[in-house]
Protein: Integral membrane protein
Amino acid sequence: MSSSEDHIPPADAMNPARRTATHRTRTGAGRLGSCAAASLLVVTIIFMVRNTGAVEAGLLGWQGSTPLVLALLSAGVGAAILTVMTGPARVTPPRRRNGDR
Structure:
């Protein structure tokens, strides 16, 4: 009375990609981001400790001596600020004037 159709597994169970797929959650993404940030912080601290030598720096006629790490980090922060400021200009579409419809 039992047929072979009763023992056929569902199509989803036969798909190996479906069985091994993991679901990503916000919590998992948060943990991954936290681990990446902590690793970056450790690398930055090591960088700061290793680069304490003084360098001569000049900008727009100003001359001075500063630790190498301060000069490099301020250049990096300045580049990040410029990137953040110009990013929305590339993503945001230009607005149309009222008469250009």
